[in-house]
Amino acid sequence: MKLALLATDWLIWGIVLVFALWVLRLRRQPMYLENWQKVFMRPSAMISGVVLACFISIALLDSIRWHSENRAGEDALSLLDRTLDSLVQARERRYSAPLAYLSFRKESFERDGQTVRDYPRLKFGGAQLQDPDRQWSLDILERTAKALGKGFVIVFFVGLLLRWLLRRSPYPWGWGFACFSLIVLIAIWVAELSAAYHVFGTDRTGNSVLWVALKSIRTALVIGVLTTLVVLPLALGLGVMAGYFRGWVDEVIQYVYTMLSSIPDVLLIAAAVLLLQVSIDQHPELFDSALERSDARLLFLCLILGVTAFTGLCRLVRGEAMKLRELEYVQAARAFGVSSFRIISNHIVPNLMHIVLISLVMQFSGFVLAEAVLSYVGVGVDPKTPSFGVMINAARAELAATPVVWWTLATAFVFMLMLVLSANLFSDAVRDAFDPRARQRS
Question: Which of 62, 201, 366, 391 would disulfide-bridge 80, Cβ 3.0–4.6 Å?
């Protein structure tokens, strides 16, 4: 076994390490700790936090990859790939509907020595059924009952454990546990049925749509998190410098972000991505596998999205820094000869962080949606990279087919809705907790 992490994998685990250190440091800052406690006092934040934790866990499982000795020469498989290996191996020839045992379209094949044109049996879906017309519904019900039985047992014992551990907690753990219980029941039901069927159907190449959707979660979170980290230093650094130093520094920075705002984002991103793709095609020796090439394009897309998206937050930080530099304690620090660097780091930036945090959390879902739009128009991630945008782009042709192949678009829509809605609800709670004016209104 040989560890083979991609560039985005290293960045993801670096972010996890920094986040863990930040949480440890947060315990020494009572004001910020109190605000985060207010975030999780809201039931909506607790529920959305559980959903986001599930998405993040899937993304982390997909960010640990290594080469196996029995699969030499292939791309490194992640822990998620190996966990879902049964779904990967259960490929059909082409489309199949959710929970189906017949192909979605008619084909010509041999039956009792004669060539007929009918819906053939799937190679994996419902293969255990001897008489599918009679056994299919009963098999679905039996597997559903078995899954619910397992789920309720797990939920019961986890509930007892949490009730003992959190019996004195002031947080609304009941709402979070209810959401967790629902997710556990759905996950066990999907896992039980996936042992014999394609729960969300298959795409045109016969791959399980469920597998593609789960793999797309990592792409969405990488786009959202890494783009946010690109926006943060640009917006905070340039905005504070423009608002504090004023003069020619302010003029230059205003000119830069005004010029970037004047260029249509889609055109700038398309030009940058196409130039990168040409460079990758001309220098294939820089990458050992197609997976690394796709990862390089994903990382570059995060960079270019961050460069085009920092202007709004930069304007907001600039205006707030201009207001803070005129306050009495900042003027007193300047009168005592305190350096500009210490004033910015000790007085300006700490009083800006609540605005920056609120803006970044609320922009996260926008970046996830931006990837879907860019992939739909063909300038997003590599077409071989699983993503919600690639799924939606593939569904464009499927919706025009007869009969309509609807499950690819529906699956991408449901997963994106869950991710974006939970991120928006969590960002609303963060805004109300960290913004005194919003907290006063609520």
Answer: 62
Convert the pLDDT of each residue in 72-117 to its tens digit. 556 778 899 888 888 888 888 888 889 888 888 887 777 777 778 8
The 3-state secondary structure of 72-127 reads CCCCCEEHHHHHCHHHHHCCCCCCECCCCCECCCCEEEEECCEEEEECCECCCCCC
Rounded-to-integer distance, Cα 106 and Cα 214, Å: 29
Percentages helix, strand, coil for the chain (3-state, rounded to 5) are: 70, 5, 25
Q: Residue 20 burial by CB count (10 A; 0-12/13-18/19+): exposed, middle or buried?
A: exposed
Return the number of other C-beta atoms located less than 10 Å from residue 325's C-beta: 20
Give the N- to C-terminal CA distance of the chain in Å, as an integer. Answer: 54
Q: Residue 118 pairs with which residues in a beta bridge?
A: 107
Interatomic CA distance for residues 269 and 300, integer angstroms: 10
* Cβ atoms within 10 Å, residue 162: 16
User: Exposure pattern of 64-94 as b/e (b: 16+ CB <10 Å)?
Assistant: bbeeeeeeeeebbbbebbeebeebeebbbee
| Three-state secondary structure call for residue 388 | helix
Q: What sign has the CA pseudo-torsion 120, 126, 129, 132?
A: negative
| Rama region for 173: left / alpha / beta (φ>0; ψ in -120 to 50; rest) | alpha
Beta bridge mates, 364 = none
Percent of the chain at pLDDT exceeding 70: 96
Is residue 380 a contact partner of residue 389, using CB atoms and an 8 Å limit?
yes
Residue 242's SS3 state is helix
Residue ranges and CATH numbers for the domains of the chain are: 209-441 (1.10.3720.10)
Ramachandran quadrant class, 113 (left: phi over 0; alpha: psi -120 to 50; beta: rest): left
> Residues 412, 395: contact at Cβ < 8 Å?
yes
94 Cβ contact list (under 8 Å, min separation 6): 103, 104, 105, 202, 204, 205, 206
User: Contact, 212 vs 88, CB < 8 A?
Assistant: no
Give every CB contact of residue 146 below 8 A, 6+ residues apart in sequence: 192
**Which residue blocks in 263-337 are alpha helix, DSSP H?**
265-282, 290-309, 311-324, 328-335
Which one-letter amino acid corresponds to residue 412? Answer: A
Residue, of 194 and 398, whose pLDDT is higher: 194
